[in-house]
Write a structure and sequence with these properties.
Oligomer: heterodimer
CATH superfamily of chain B: Winged helix-like DNA-binding domain superfamily/Winged helix DNA-binding domain
CATH class of chain B: Mainly Alpha
CATH architecture of chain B: Orthogonal Bundle
Largest sheet of chain B: 3 strands, antiparallel
Shape of chain A: elongated
Strand content of chain B: 15-25%
Strand order of the largest sheet of chain B: 2-5-4
Structural class of chain B: alpha+beta
Shape of chain B: globular
Order of helices and strands of chain B: EHEHEHEEH
């Protein structure tokens, strides 16, 4: 009731100011008349009564003002007046306004764009109920590298551990869907029955997988993603209970996931089918499954890790000691940490860099404000002399700053929309939750908070100046002579700007150099002029022989394409994200007992190693006669040979791959190490076998084609060659080997590009800061310089005067910045490769660059100083 | 000039106004004069504070205000006590007498 009155009365006053004022004036005047009348009633003459009444009531204006100022609407009116005044001022100082708004927009835009990526990936919980309880379980080798899990271990953990509500395993799957439309190949997942229960979700339509679906030879069932359901089945609910054909096999559709389901473990997966794992095939102990679990309530990760380690060791001891190395370690990590592991350092470093840019922006704008404060000092003095209260002046200044900050922030938000697009385009391949990156409420709140903080910060600088205004002194002195007071603060600001810029420059220099080092690292093969295409075996060609024949005949056709030097295929391609590892078991021999190692397994056609130009160290390459039925042969990588044989000769020794009861392969050669996962990852124990000698033929192969010239130009011809072997054949991944190598360094490249952008912005801002201070200082000292040259100072000494000041500031800033960069480089240490975070070349190079830029920034004011004409300046006195 | 006249104690002005208006609807000057008279000149009401307080009480819903013709043919803003205003007056009056008598007891107390 009373609140309502407050509001309506206030609004009436606000929007009908004239009527409200008239009412108030009437009331005050009536008061005065009544007072006069009451004095007259006591016998005073009308004039005397009026005088007495005036004395009693005081100034009518003051009374009116007092009443007016008491309502809440008065605050709004003052604000409106302040904003109007600020707008007028900023319009008058258009150049200043534009520079400040753009600078603020740059800072806020950069940090907001980065925040919009960092927030959903690193800070927001994953979009699952109680996402903190979802964890991944990984195995780690003794060298700390991670290894996929096995089905046997999953079973052992599921039975033995007490820390989990549910556990699930999954692996990628790429089925081809046949139907009336064209055959389409999907990214999909084979999952154990509890996969969705681990995530805490269930299909929005139909049912979840049941344990019965996951048994060997159970009827095949499938759950569709919402996108696939809409695209291929027109969102028709009747699809439930119908069969679809995947890889020539009917699958009953039992469910559809929600539109909002975000599958961070396999973002591209569009359908899911149970693993239906066949333990009897002897593959139970192959490392090709990933394990996830949902922790029981109130179970901590450490507790679960202890549980897993104990049970895991027991499983190894009791069930399968020979393929598991005794020193295997288990890692339990929250799903969020696990999926962000590879990008976290880069994202945090980039976020830090954008914060540095914002800091430099703040310093720069503060500097501009200070310089402007000097120019406005006589204005403040005048307003104070006319009766403006100190609070009123401060309020006015803060309003101006907020108007600037809001303009800058608004523009910055606009910039960040563009920035987010760029960011997504630049994003490294491993970046999770790409779809969650964008401007949402959290981002707006963040931008608003930063903007407010910036506005407050800049408001305080001129407000402090306004508060110290001494009208008498300031009006008496011309503004020209007043500038000295702020010089120290402005110099300190320039120094900090230089220091911050140096930190960013060092960071980007270190990253750039380590990227260069990374690309200089030999990957173990020659990536130039190599075209690759991943091709799944046609589903219509059932049987191992037919599959291999298809790949072999496709290879033969590719070889005959003009411009092709050589062609071959492999079951896994380096740097492509493929990861196929097996236990490699060396047979016992007199000198050494039997021993197992984890290694990448490549099932290759003859000519693969030659096409990739992987060097032979010992023995021989594969030849055409190493085929199915012939004696099984293998090549091993240099590092695997080193591990097992040291300096001994591996040729003629025998090993088994995967199940220990398979046929042994005889080692016929040793080849160079190849970087499989990325340039930065040195895991290179590898074993190569002829694809035709692998008992379960690989369904997917990557062709590698070495061109005589431009490999990309061969793409259509090679495609056509593959289609000539089977015209319905989908071709999945077409890429130049060089691009794959570059993409494998994606996280670092992402960080380098952004760091370079930020460092460039910082350098420009720092140069602008140096220039601004020197230009101001030369302008202030015009008279002094004039006098000096009149007294015979040489041009050189005047140049020296300006450069000494500018370079002095740079030197102090650089020293502080070097210390800061040394400390801050810890943040990016994890991204550096092949160089120390104290790399002296980077540090000296950066300082040299900064010095050069600083000299450039000094030269314009210095030139101006030299051109000062003593006669003119002295006459101007 | 009377030496004993004091400004109205902070916070009691509202109470005094409500009480005065409760006797009969009145305009601003009337309220001021009545407070001075009844307090025998102890309280002198500053017109700025009075009109501000009236605006506040009106907005708070404790007083209603209306422009009316007075007997001497002037237009005056006349204030009337509302139901909410009466309630508040009772509550504040009670609180005031409790405090006043407590203060009085303390002052009378012998060491």
């Amino acid at each position: 009731m009373s609140l309502w009155r407050q509001l309506t009365r206030g609004l009436r006053a606000l929007f009908g100011r004239a009527a409200a004022d008239a009412d108030l004036t009437d009331e005050v005047r009536h008061y005065l008349e009544e007072a006069a009348a009451s004095h007259a009633a006591r016998g005073l003459s009308p004039e005397a009564a009026l005088r007495a009444a005036r004395l009693e009531v005081g100034s009518l204006t003051a009374v009116t003002e007092e009443v007016r100022a008491s309502g809440w609407e008065h605050g709004i009116e003052t604000l409106a007046a302040d904003v109007k005044y600020a707008a007028r001022r900023l319009h008058t100082e258009f150049g200043f306004t534009v520079v400040v708004v753009l600078t603020i927009a740059l800072g806020i835009g950069a940090i907001t764009a980065i925040f919009s990526a960092v927030n959903p990936i690193l800070f927001e919980p994953l979009p699952y109920p109680e996402a903190g309880r979802v964890v991944t379980i990984t195995e780690m080798r003794s060298d700390g590298s991670r290894n996929d899990g096995t089905f046997g271990m999953y079973r052992g953990l599921a039975e033995g551990t007490r820390s989990f509500d549910t556990l699930a395993v999954f692996k990628p799957w790429q089925p081809t869907l046949q139907g009336r439309d064209q055959a389409e190949r999907f990214d999909a997942q084979r999952v154990s029955a509890d996969y969705f229960r681990v995530l805490g979700l269930s299909p929005v339509l139909g049912r979840d997988f049941e344990p019965a679906d996951d048994r060997v030879n159970a009827p095949a069932v499938v759950i569709l993603s919402h996108a696939l359901w809409r695209r291929r089945f027109q969102a028709n609910p009747a699809i439930l209970g119908q069969s679809i054909t995947l890889d020539e096999r009917p699958y009953l559709v039992v469910g559809v996931m929600s539109e909002r389901f975000e599958n961070v473990l396999a973002p591209a997966a569009e359908l899911w089918a149970p693993l239906q794992y066949d333990m009897s095939q002897g593959r139970a102990w192959g490392h090709h499954l990933r394990t996830v679990g949902r922790l029981g309530r109130a179970i901590g990760i450490d507790q679960a890790a202890g549980d897993v380690a104990a049970v895991g060791q027991r499983v190894i001891v009791e069930q399968r000691p020979e393929t598991y190395a005794a020193e295997v370690m288990f890692g339990v990590a929250s799903l969020q940490d696990d999926v962000t592991r590879s990008v976290r350092p880069a994202l945090l470093a980039v976020f830090g860099a954008s914060a540095l840019v914002l800091a430099i922006v703040c310093v720069n704008v503060s500097n501009l404000f200070l310089a402007r404060g000097v120019r406005r000092r006589s204005e403040f003095a005048l307003r104070a002399a006319l009766g403006a209260g100190r609070t009123r002046l401060i309020r006015q200044m803060i309003t101006e700053s907020f108007v600037l900050a809001l303009l800058g922030g608004g523009l910055g938000l606009g910039l960040s929309i563009v920035g987010v697009r760029v960011l997504v385009a630049l994003s490294p391949p491993g970046l999770p939750r790409l779809n969650a990156i964008g401007l949402d409420g959290a981002v707006f709140a963040f931008a608003l908070t930063v903007t407010t903080a910036v506005g407050l910060l800049f408001g305080l600088i001129p407000a402090r100046q306004a508060a110290r205004t001494d009208p008498q002194r300031d009006m008496a002195l011309g503004s020209q002579r007043l500038a000295g007071g702020n010089r120290r603060i402005r110099q300190a600001l320039v120094i900090s700007e230089v220091a911050l810029a140096l930190m960013l420059l060092v960071g980007s220099g270190l990253l750039f150099r380590s990227l260069a080092r990374l690309f200089a690292m030999p990957p173990g093969f020659d990536a130039r002029n190599v075209l690759t295409m991943q091709v799944p075996a046609p589903a219509s060609r059932a049987g191992a022989d037919a599959t291999l024949n298809f790949f072999a005949s496709a290879r033969d056709v590719i070889r005959s394409v003009p411009g092709v030097e050589s062609a071959a295929f492999t079951s896994q391609l380096p740097m492509s994200g493929d990861r196929d590892e097996y236990g490699v078991h060396f047979e016992a021999e007199p000198a050494r007992p039997a021993q197992s190692y984890g290694a990448f397994r490549y099932g290759v056609s003859p000519g693969y190693l030659e096409t990739m130009r992987i060097s032979l160290r010992r023995g021989r390459f594969f030849e055409e006669h190493d085929r199915a039925g012939a004696a099984p042969v293998a090549l091993i990588s240099e590092s695997l040979a080193q591990l097992r044989f040291g300096t001994g000769d591996p040729i003629g020794r025998r090993l088994r791959i995967g199940p220990t009861d398979g046929a042994p392969y005889t080692i016929v050669g040793v080849v160079d190490d190849v970087r499989q996962m990325s340039l930065a990852v040195g895991e290179s124990a590898a074993v190569y076998i002829p694809a035709s000698q692998w008992p379960l033929p690989d369904g997917v192969m990557s062709f590698v084609v070495r061109a005589r010239g431009d490999a990309a130009a061969l793409t259509p011809a090679v495609r056509a060659a593959i289609w000539s072997a089977d015209k319905n054949q989908p071709i999945v991944r077409v890429a130049l080997m060089e691009d794959l190598v570059a993409a494998s360094a994606g996280e670092r490249r992402f960080a380098v590009i952004l760091f370079e952008g930020f460092a460039l912005a910082a350098l420009v801002l720092a140069a602008a800061g140096i220039y601004g201070v020197l230009a101001g200082s030369v302008a202030e000292r015009t008279r002094e310089i004039g006098v000096r040259s009149a007294l015979g100072a040489s041009r050189g000494s005047i140049l020296g005067l300006v450069f000494r000041q500018g370079l002095g500031l740079t030197a102090i800033g650089a020293l502080i910045g070097l210390a800061g960069a040394g400390a801050a480089s810890r943040v990016i240490a994890g991204l550096l490769i092949g160089i120390s975070r104290y790399d002296p070349l980077t540090y000296t190079g950066t300082v040299a660059l900064l010095a050069a830029v600083s000299v450039a920034a000094c030269s314009v004011p210095a030139w101006r100083a030299v051109r000062i004409d003593p006669a003119t300046t002295l006459r101007a006195e | 000039m009377e030496q004993r006249s004091t400004d109205v104690i902070q916070g009691t002005l509202d109470l005094l106004i409500l009480k005065t208006v409760s006797l009969q609807p009145m305009h601003g000057f009337g309220i001021a004069r009545r407070i001075e008279q009844v307090s025998r000149g102890v309280f002198k009401v500053n017109p700025g504070s009075l009109l501000t307080a009236l605006q506040r009480l009106e907005r708070g819903g404790w007083l209603d205000a209306e422009w009316r013709q007075t007997e001497n043919a002037r237009r005056a803003r006349i204030y009337t006590l509302t139901k909410a205003g009466r309630k508040r007056l009772e509550a504040e009056a009670e609180g005031w007498s409790r405090r006043a008598s407590a203060v009085a007891r303390l002052l009378k107390a012998e060491a």
